[in-house]
Amino acid sequence: MKHRQDVRFSVTEGAKDVNTLHVPKVQRLRKGWEFDEIFRTGTRINGELVRILYLRNGGDCIKFGCAVGKRQGKAHVRTRGRRILREAFRALSGRMLSGIKIVLTLQDKGLSSKSTDIQPELERLLIRRRLLVKNS
């Protein structure tokens, strides 16, 4: 078994992959008041696995956040839920219309699902509200 100190990586190895998996800071909701604003005044869309809250802000970019409540499970369950939501959003973010703030949350049933199950439902819900451009 190799110890961590024996494993060597170059600086550039894997750096490209890490950057493509994250939602850029410019596109993230980072302040509590931003989440509160969307939870209080945003439009809700409920699906079987995912719940979408969004607010049109008229800007030129998309602002994204995900929330998994403490009532939904322990820390490792909530972390997995956020990871699944980020991956599903990242796959669809290139086709989303600009000028919206969006928060994704998981239904209880969605906590045990994979991102490959969540993504088609998320895509269907966003297309229905005309927030996502259809694949042609």
Proper CATH architecture: 2-Layer Sandwich
Largest sheet, strands/sense/barrel: 4 strands, mixed
Kindly name the structural category: alpha+beta
Q: How many alpha or pi helices?
A: 4
What spatial form do the alpha-carbon principal axes imply?
globular
- Rg, Cα atoms, Å: 17 Å
For the record, give the distance between the C-alpha atoms at the N and C termini, rounded to a whole number.
49 Å
Unreliable sequence segments: 1-19
What does the oligomeric state look like here?
Answer: single chain
The number of distinct β-strands equals: 4
Give the strand content.
15-25%
Query: What is the CATH class name?
Result: Alpha Beta
Helix content range: 25-40%
Overall description:
With 136 residues, the chain is an alpha+beta fold. The chain has one domain (25-127): Ribosomal Protein S5, domain 2 (2-Layer Sandwich), CATH 3.30.230.10. Helix content is 36%, strand content 17%. It has a 4-stranded mixed β-sheet, sandwiched between helices. A hairpin with a 3-residue loop joins strand 1 (43-46) and strand 2. Helix 3 (75-92) packs across helix 4. The N and C termini lie far apart (49 Å).
